[in-house]
């Protein structure tokens, strides 16, 4: 951050050059400028893209330097997350935000709650990016406002040591603004539609856009059935569209995450045209399921035939015209998807899996890295996985393989609370605790995210409050389980007027109106009952 004194001096020079600006205080100008460091979304995109690129390079040097994020469905949720991270860890470094298309559909559409099938308004995605950054910038403004008050108090009592210490804090202030990995689904249309939406997302501040290889108008949640992929040429056109959007807007460091759903997708909507043996279309078509055609008598009205290697086949088509892939080809298609994407402009990969299994992920990544050695993943630590059951079963299977007794456990019943605290459950929990660190080391995962955690935390906390408040606990249900914990855990949000910007507004009133300003933060403000100040 630019030196506080320098910005004050620059403001003073500007004011002095104008004869009628005598009422403007240069230090107040400097404070407002520092509280609004990013003038536009493009400023944010350029700043955060640089951070992501540095983090990616750091991970290449040491896989222990992986990054993390949580999905946020509202600006306030994202703001509180980053405030909490700064409070507990002292820095936001390596922590991002994730914008989940699932949560946009479920919580931000004007149609009301929708499934994750790209039915929500595409404009709601850049709108949420802008909202998230508005709240993060407000978190900056609020924290700096407290530092400015500390500076004024030190000056009032003549404490020069404290004054210098606070000024150093201001000069070294770390912003709450961090990279957002933003989900553009399958692009919401053709490549031109993808380009137009990507531009809006970048202009709102997105430095990283994640795009998937499903058919846009048949898009399904990654953890649902019925997924349909597109040929590589179609997907690469959309990757190109996103890159053009980044470069047109001057965000040359913009990051593209290419997501493949091929592991769980058994259908394609289109058979691409192959121009020569072994090209991408030919490789894609090699995975199509079909019946060998040996005679024209095998063909019926409306049938089609393609050459697959040395065979002529009639592709297996469903009643809706979709074409089926051969069984058990998902992993091979994933590897081809990933290599092709990285060789054609993508920066990071996303492999949507059906379970959180490091061995499965590593097997795929090792095959990709045999061709592209620095391949890196963004991985969905999804709430769609039953983590408890998955890892208890993984331990159970490992014990069986090792010859260790499993007679006290029933594999299909391992979710039961009767196993809580057992040796198997404890080992499973330890594997869950270390999953991100181990997967970063063993499976090439650069970024770990949870797509929709705050959807679940909002539901859980509301359920607990409703149960107590409307039950026998009454008001104690709120005081004991919410407010008392806010105070004792040092949550700044307990002073909700301050968090919403009341004190910043008071400062502005004083800047604009001087002594006649009508301020809200006087002695009768009930927020004075709380000791928490940061």
Question: How does this model look, in words?
Answer:
This is Isocitrate lyase. There is one protein chain. This protein has 534 residues and is of the alpha/beta class. 48% of the residues lie in helices and 10% in strands. The chain has a single domain (30-287, 325-459), classed as Phosphoenolpyruvate-binding domains (TIM Barrel, Alpha-Beta Barrel), CATH 3.20.20. It is built from 19 helices and 14 strands. The protein has an eight-stranded parallel sheet with strand order 12-6-4-3-2-1-14-13. Helix 4 (75-89) links the parallel strand 1 (67-71) and strand 2. Helix 8 runs parallel beside helix 9 (232-248). The longest helix has 33 residues, at 124-156.
Question: Secondary structure elements and their pairing?
Answer:
Elements: H1 4-16, H2 26-35, H3 41-61, E1 67-71, H4 75-89, E2 95-99, H5 101-107, H6 124-156, H7 160-171, E3 180-183, H8 191-204, E4 208-212, E5 228-229, H9 232-248, E6 255-260, E7 267-268, H10 280-285, E8 290-292, E9 306-308, E10 311-315, E11 323-324, H11 330-342, E12 348-351, H12 358-369, E13 377-380, H13 387-402, H14 423-433, H15 435-442, E14 445-450, H16 453-469, H17 475-488, H18 496-499, H19 502-513
Parallel strand pairs: 1-2, 1-14, 2-3, 3-4, 4-6, 5-7, 6-12, 13-14
Antiparallel strand pairs: 7-11, 8-10, 9-10
Keywords: Lyase, Magnesium, Metal-binding
Cofactor: Mg(2+)
GO molecular function, one term: isocitrate lyase activity
């Amino acid at each position: 951050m630019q030196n506080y004194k320098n910005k004050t001096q620059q403001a003073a020079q500007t004011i002095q050059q104008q004869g009628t600006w005598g009422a403007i205080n240069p230090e107040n100008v400097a404070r407002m400028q520092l509280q609004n460091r990013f003038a536009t979304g493009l400023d944010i995109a350029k700043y955060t893209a640089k951070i992501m690129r540095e983090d990616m390079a750091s991970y290449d040097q040491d896989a222990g330097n992986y990054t993390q994020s949580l999905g946020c469905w509202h600006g306030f949720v994202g703001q509180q997350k980053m405030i909490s991270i700064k409070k507990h860890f002292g820095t936001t470094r390596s922590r991002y935000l994730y914008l989940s298309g699932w949560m946009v559909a479920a919580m931000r559409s004007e149609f009301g709650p929708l499934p994750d099938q790209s039915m929500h308004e595409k404009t709601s995605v850049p709108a949420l990016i802008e909202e998230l950054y508005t709240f993060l910038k407000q978190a900056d403004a609020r924290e700096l406002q407290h530092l400015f008050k500390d500076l004024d108090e030190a000056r009032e009592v003549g404490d020069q040591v404290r004054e210098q210490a606070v000024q150093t804090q201001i000069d070294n202030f770390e912003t709450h603004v961090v990279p957002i990995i933003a989900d553009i689904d399958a692009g919401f249309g053709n490549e031109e539609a993808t380009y137009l939406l990507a531009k809006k997302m970048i202009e709102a501040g997105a430095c990283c856009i994640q795009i998937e290889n499903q058919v846009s108008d048949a898009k399904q949640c990654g953890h649902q059935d019925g997924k349909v992929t597109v040929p590589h040429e179609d997907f690469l056109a959309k990757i190109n569209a996103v890159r053009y959007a980044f470069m047109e807007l001057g965000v040359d460091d913009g990051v593209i995450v290419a997501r493949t759903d091929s592991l769980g997708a058994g259908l394609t909507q289109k058979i691409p045209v192959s121009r020569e043996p072994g090209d991408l279309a030919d490789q894609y078509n090699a995975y199509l399921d079909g019946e060998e055609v040996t005679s024209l008598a095998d063909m019926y009205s409306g049938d089609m035939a393609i050459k697959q290697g040395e065979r002529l086949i009639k592709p297996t088509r469903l009643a809706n015209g979709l074409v089926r892939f051969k069984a058990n080809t998902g992993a091979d298609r994933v590897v081809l998807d990933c290599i092709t994407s990285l060789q054609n402009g993508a920066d990071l990969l996303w492999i949507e899996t059906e379970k959180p299994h490091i061995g499965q992920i590593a097997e795929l990544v090792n095959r990709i890295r045999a061709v592209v050695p620095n391949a890196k993943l963004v991985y969905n630590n999804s709430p769609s996985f039953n983590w408890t059951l998955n890892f208890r079963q993984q331990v159970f299977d490992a014990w069986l393989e090792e010859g260790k007794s499993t007679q006290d456990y029933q594999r299909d019943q391992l979710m039961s609370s009767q196993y809580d605290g057992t040796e198997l459950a404890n080992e499973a929990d330890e594997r869950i605790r270390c999953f991100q660190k181990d997967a970063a080391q063993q499976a090439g995962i650069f970024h770990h995210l949870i797509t929709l955690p705050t959807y679940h935390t909002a539901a859980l906390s509301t359920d607990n409050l409703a149960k107590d408040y409307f039950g026998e606990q009454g008001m104690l249900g709120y005081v004991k389980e919410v407010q008392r914990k806010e105070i004792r855990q040092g949550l700044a949000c307990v002073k909700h007027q301050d968090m919403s910007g009341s004190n910043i507004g008071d400062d502005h009133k004083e800047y604009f109106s001087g002594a006649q300003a009508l301020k809200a933060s006087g002695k009768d403000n009930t927020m004075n009952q709380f000791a928490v100040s940061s």
